[in-house]
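User: My instructor asked us to take a sequence, write out its structure as tokens, and then describe one feature of it. I'm not sure where to start. Here is the sequence I was given:
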Amino acid sequence: MYGRRATQLLEEIDSSEAGQLAPFNSDVFDQVIRECNEHNSQFQSLIRKMVEQNLDIETTRNEDHYGAAIHHLSLLRNKRCLMAYMYNRAEVIQSFRWKVGPVLPHDIQEKLHFSEKEYFKNHSAAIKSYISEMDIDLTVDMVPPKDPYIQVRVLEDIGEVSLGDHSVSLTKNSLHFLRRTDAEQFISQGLMEEFLE
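Assistant: Let's start with the prediction itself. The structure tokens for your sequence are:
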């Protein structure tokens, strides 16, 4: 039955947990592409047959016209399903750049088609280029902070560090009031933590 394979791709997207990817389904994807080629071939054949019989394609309503319409609509439906499958996967892949950074973990890379890996690489390069051009790190504070300064406790001796226009000695268990952007790198490395009273 026409369109059943394409529906499998959409069901796969629907059953996936939000923000997660199932491995790229190359087998079904290729089967849908082959089905599209078959529909296109049948459509072209029926139109050619009508032209050879000197029938007006716009006004003639016979079995060839309705057959061509079925193949055309089936082709469009499959195309929409393929586009929805790729678009949904592309959205998740874009979100990975913000969640895990410019290098994907091996377990995620295994789930991607080679074109999706290339898409991620190009997307990351575009973000990196924009960040360097604008001189703003967009990957910090994905949720806007209520206050640009935070109180932190140093978990391990870091030593004398230059932060912007001043330097500070970061010794173990000391408390500091720092700009959030200065503290983020140390927090992500596990060298300090936000101190909540």
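For the description part of your assignment, you could build on this observation: The chain has a mean pLDDT of 89. Try explaining in your own words what that tells you about the chain.
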